[in-house]
Structures are given as structure tokens and as C-alpha cells.
């Protein structure tokens, strides 16, 4: 609305009233919609924070149960966490816990399926790499070394390069390919610091390959 600077005060007032009669309803509706959107966003944020806090509390209870070796309680609580709070980061953490418990129970197939499902929701690269490591170990235990090699070839290991190289070495051993296994173990050794105790395990694997 443009006002004539030379118009009288009465004319300006009348122009404002006329503009308000024509546009006031639209302005009010816009204000109401904006206010409702703001309140809705704030309410949703509070709801999300509340759910995350509840999930965190339950996850802490699971960790406390782990310290007490309460396996049944861990499994049931992790299942509840996954079902009720799957939209929080702790829902993903519960999958990792459940997979570990499934593995401890000897149910490697269920553990594998859980980890494969977790990869669909994991967004942080470091967490993805950890899941791939656990999944690769399970696949090796299930007798699928070629699947391990195929999967790891598609992943950038980053700071987990030594662990990934070792798993490739284990897969090559399972496939009866000692030369490739030796190269992988040597790569894994190069990725470790000189003082790391885990070097001894890798060296033992290399020594075993040299034995007739």
C-alpha cells in the first residue's frame, strides 16, 4: 500500500482503513497460520527431545544390565527400545546389542539380518564401518568368505583399515588363498602402531601361513 505523502491525515487514515478492509482477513489468516506453525514446530521439537531422552534412559539401563551379565533383561530391553524408539539413534544402538546377543545364543542368521537392516538406517560413516566389521565377522563365522571380500571391497575403511585388512586376510585363508592372505595381513600390520599388542596376533596369523 503506497500513501500519497501530500494527502491529508484524514485521507491517509481512510486509505489505511480501506486497505485493512480489503486485506485484513488475509493478514490475520497468515498470522494465525504462522503462529500455529511455530507452535507446532516447538511442540514437535519438545516431543522429539522427550523421546530421545526416554530412549537414552532405557539405553543406560541396558548398559547397566550388561555390567551385571543380565542377558535376558538386556535382550528384552533392547527389543523394547527397538520397537518403541526406532526413530531415535538409540534404536540403532539396540540393533547392535540384539545382534550381539543373537550371536551369543548361536543364532548367527538372525544377527546377520539385524546388522544388514541396521546399515539401512546408519548415517554416520564411522558407525557404518563398525557395522560392516561386525557383519563381516558374522559372515566368516557362517562360512561365507567370498561374500565378505565382495562386501569389504565396496567400503572405504578409513581409520579401520587395519581391521578391514585383517578380515580380508581371514577370508582369503578360508578360501585357501595363502598368498593373498599374507598380503592382507601385512597390510594390517602396517596400519598398526609399533607398540600395539594386537600386532602379536597378526604376526601369529602370518607365521601360521608360513608353516607347511
Automatic annotation (TrEMBL):
<keyword id="KW-0143">Chaperone</keyword>
<keyword id="KW-1003">Cell membrane</keyword>
<dbReference type="InterPro" id="IPR026039">
    <property type="entry name" value="YfgM"/>
</dbReference>
<protein>
    <recommendedName>
        <fullName>Ancillary SecYEG translocon subunit</fullName>
    </recommendedName>
</protein>
<feature type="domain" description="Ancillary SecYEG translocon subunit/Cell division coordinator CpoB TPR">
    <location>
        <begin position="17"/>
        <end position="211"/>
    </location>
</feature>
<keyword id="KW-0812">Transmembrane</keyword>
<dbReference type="GO" id="GO:0005886">
    <property type="term" value="C:plasma membrane"/>
</dbReference>
<keyword id="KW-1133">Transmembrane helix</keyword>
<dbReference type="InterPro" id="IPR018704">
    <property type="entry name" value="SecYEG/CpoB_TPR"/>
</dbReference>
<keyword id="KW-0472">Membrane</keyword>
<comment type="similarity">
    <text>Belongs to the YfgM family.</text>
</comment>
<dbReference type="Pfam" id="PF09976">
    <property type="entry name" value="TPR_21"/>
</dbReference>
<dbReference type="GO" id="GO:0044877">
    <property type="term" value="F:protein-containing complex binding"/>
</dbReference>
<feature type="transmembrane region" description="Helical">
    <location>
        <begin position="26"/>
        <end position="44"/>
    </location>
</feature>
<dbReference type="InterPro" id="IPR011990">
    <property type="entry name" value="TPR-like_helical_dom_sf"/>
</dbReference>
